[in-house]
Amino acid sequence: MLTQKHNSIIKILMFGTGLDVKGGVTSVERLIINNAPRQLQIKHVATIGQGSTAHNILLFCQAIQSLVVNILRRDVDIIHIHFSERGSTLRKSILVFIATFFHQSIILHAHGATYREFYAGLPQFVKNILISLFSKCRIIVLSKSWQEYYSHEFALERSRVSVLYNPVDLPSNTPYREGRQHLKFIFLGRIGKRGGALDIAQSLMSFPKQDKGAFDLINAFAVLSAADRQNVELVMAGNGDLVAANQLIADLDLTDKITILDWLDTEQRDKLLATADAFVLPSYNEGLPMSMLESMAWGLPVIVTPVGGIPEVIIDHQNGLLVEPGSQDQLVKAMESLIRDESLRLSLGAAGRNSVKDLSIHNYMESLAELYASAIQKK
Question: On the chain, which terminus has fewer CB atoms closer than 10 Å, C or N?
Answer without folding.
Answer: N
